[in-house]
């Protein structure tokens, strides 16, 4: 199938216009593969999404000659991450030793990143991005997925494709529709997201705050912080019952520099709950269908690696599938090869995240009680700090299986 854009048959249809879906769509169209990307919203303006673009992804942007266009979009760059433990600051993961062009994390609103990729991808004749269009189910014929059912407004229609890629996130509609088996890992936390004004003169380099047995993460933007208050899973009702003023005062106690700004929290509508998950599919594929990114392996916020892993999935998918898609010779063994390539990195990352959760939030306290930093972790931090900074920096900045662009460009963006 080769028609598109704006027809209802295509070579590849991607459900989900997040980082994995847009990046994969860009790569496929750049190599001459017709692709339709479906995004259920009318724009990319979603707050409290992952905004950290790590050195592994910056390398890919450089390989695609997009880095110079991307870097001005960044609100902030961090070559190292500081953490404040009960009033004492120490240097966390460092990136300056990495063998990459960019030895920093770029904090960039996700919508700016996605807008850049999608606008550049529109230079390729085979790229078709359909906003306000949601994939709701797959279309099957003779035991194979041959397309997707979509909703655009109140109109339902089908798009036929040689390959459907489900990149529709941790709450994947296509994963539910196809009943793929999910392995869940019990996670003891959830996250409350909110915005606070950034104090004048603040350098933004301290990202983690653990004080009074409670934890905050502060992600810098140009004029405000995107703040994550870590809570125990199941504690949200108890926290809300104490009122927004009590919650705001607790924020100020955990992070004293934000004490004044916390007064701006006026209503629970300002606070969004993220239910943290770590899970994975046992099988990422079936004939005509492939899952990537959070749809295949949902990550916790630890390390901010979710976007970057999803993009690595997209690159590995393009590297393996461009040739068979262009030849009309795609087989399920090609899809299995993507899982074989990417699953080990996803599982190792999830295992590491689970260890961090266990160290920071393990134990037998009831939901809502303070967290604590285990003594074993304290000893490791202080005894092996220089080594841990470098190792943690590499794990966060590069990951376990960095990918590189292997596909050739049939078209160039302007």
TrEMBL record:
Pfam families: FAD_binding_3. Keywords: Oxidoreductase. InterPro entries: FAD-bd, FAD/NAD-bd_sf, PheA/TfdB_FAD_monoxygenase. The keyword Lyase does not apply. Residues 10-349 form the FAD-binding domain. One of its GO terms (molecular function) is FAD binding. NCBIfam families: PRK06185.1-3. This is FAD-binding domain-containing protein. It comes from Adhaeretor mobilis.
């Amino acid at each position: 199938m080769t028609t598109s854009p704006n027809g209802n048959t295509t070579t590849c249809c991607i459900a989900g216009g997040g980082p994995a879906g847009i990046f994969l769509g860009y790569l496929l169209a750049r190599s001459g593969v017709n692709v339709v990307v479906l995004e259920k919203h009318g724009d990319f303006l979603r707050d409290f999404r992952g905004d950290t673009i790590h050195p592994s992804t910056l390398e890919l942007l450089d390989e695609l000659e997009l880095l110079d266009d991307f870097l001005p979009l960044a609100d902030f760059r961090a070559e190292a991450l500081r953490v404040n433990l009960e009033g004492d600051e120490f240097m966390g993961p460092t990136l300056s030793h990495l063998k990459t062009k960019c030895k920093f994390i770029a904090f960039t609103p996700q919508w700016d990143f996605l807008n850049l990729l999608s606008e550049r991808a529109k230079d390729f004749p085979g790229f078709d991005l359909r906003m306000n269009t949601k994939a709701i189910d797959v279309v099957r014929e003779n035991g194979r997925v041959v397309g997707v059912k979509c909703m655009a407004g109140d109109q339902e229609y089908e798009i036929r494709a040689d390959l459907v890629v489900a990149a529709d996130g941790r709450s994947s509609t296509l994963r539910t529709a196809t009943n793929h088996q999910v392995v869940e890992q019990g996670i003891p936390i959830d996250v409350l997201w909110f915005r606070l004004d950034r104090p004048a003169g603040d350098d933004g380099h301290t990202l983690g705050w653990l004080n009074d047995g409670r934890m905050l993460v502060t992600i810098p933007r140009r004029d405000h912080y995107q703040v994550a208050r870590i809570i125990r899973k199941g504690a949200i009702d108890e926290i809300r019952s104490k009122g927004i003023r009590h919650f705001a005062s607790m924020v100020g106690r955990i992070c004293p520099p934000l004490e004044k700004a916390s007064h701006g929290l006026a209503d629970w509508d300002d606070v969004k709950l993220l239910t943290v998950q770590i899970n994975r599919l046992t099988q990422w594929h079936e004939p005509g269908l492939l899952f990537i990114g959070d749809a295949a392996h949902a990550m916790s916020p630890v390390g901010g690696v979710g976007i970057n892993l999803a993009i690595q999935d997209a690159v590995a998918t393009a590297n393996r599938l461009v040739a068979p898609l262009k030849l009309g010779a795609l087989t399920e063994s090609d899809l299995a090869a993507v899982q074989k390539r990417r699953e080990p990195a996803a599982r190792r990352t999830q295992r590491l995240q689970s260890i961090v959760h266990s160290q920071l939030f393990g134990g037998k306290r009831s939901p809502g009680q303070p967290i604590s930093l285990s003594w074993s972790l304290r000893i490791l931090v202080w005894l092996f700090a220089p080594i841990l900074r470098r190792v943690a920096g590499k794990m966060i900045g590069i990951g376990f299986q960095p990918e590189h662009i292997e596909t050739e460009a049939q078209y160039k963006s302007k």
